[in-house]
Specification:
six-stranded antiparallel beta barrel, four-stranded antiparallel beta sheet, 38% helix, 27% strand
Amino acid sequence: MIRKLFLPVLGFAGFVFAVTVVVQGSAPIKAAPAVSEPAKAAFSQFVAGAGLIEAQSENIAIGTPVPGVVMEVAVTPGTGVKKGDLLFRLDDRSLRAELSLQLAQLEVARAQLTRLENKPAAESKPAALARVEDAEVAVKLAAEQLGRLEKTDTRSVTTGELDNARLAVAAAQAKLNIARADAAAWRDDIKVAQAQIAQAQARVDATKVALSLLEIRAPISGQILQVKVRAGEFAPTGALAQPLVTLGAVEKLHVRVDIDENDAWRIAEGARAKANARGNAGLAVELRFERIEPLVVPKRSLTGDATERVDTRVLQVIFSFERGEKPLYVGQQMDVTIEVK
């Protein structure tokens, strides 16, 4: 008796359960409330676009002209820097040792020049120059003696005396030539010493330039937006996917708006625009037109919307706004509406 009643009751319970599940499953799903209210259009006729906040100077990706191990990082994200301030420094120990050696070589070259210039000499002049002066005087005296003999009556001067006077002039001239050659050699030594000083100074200057390349400094005054390098890490050269340091001037911020190429023709110079922050439509700023970049480029700024087109090209329009105390940051996305007529 129990078995005859149990099976029908169990079947009926299963039927009721199935009907209940089907009814509940076919009920319309209520739409989830929006996390935040969407931005409202500020103009009667407008073109909408996704905007990306960037620094007034654009985001500057700081790199290094030479590779090396980072010894010091002098900045942190959010700090302000002035043009020329140190950002980070690479290992410079080998170059500093080389600079010390080159400075010593420069001092040796200078000492060599001083030694040449201060050789013992008559009347505080180098000996070679003094010998030239003596030889010039001897030539002059011998020439005067020969002149006097030639003017004397030939009856009182023998041929031998004239020949001896002429030989004396020739001998004095030969000594003068030798003295001048010695003096010229001394001057050449001076020139060589001076050239060695110039060469040593050039090496020192070149090493100082190489040292300056190891100190990466701020190209402009602005704010450090991101630091992705640490002391002890190797800093490579070239364009990196992740910049070592990102810097920008943020007193005034720019918004780079991507406008679909189909709507590009509708944008006019000086157009008014308004931007609303993603996630907070009440956080809005009036935008000031800056420029239109006339090159239409492939779209790169993605919003994450399921219906977003990525196989399109966009015209980039640049607007600006005063940052003030608004919680808006570089890299943040904005919903922008641009007035059109």
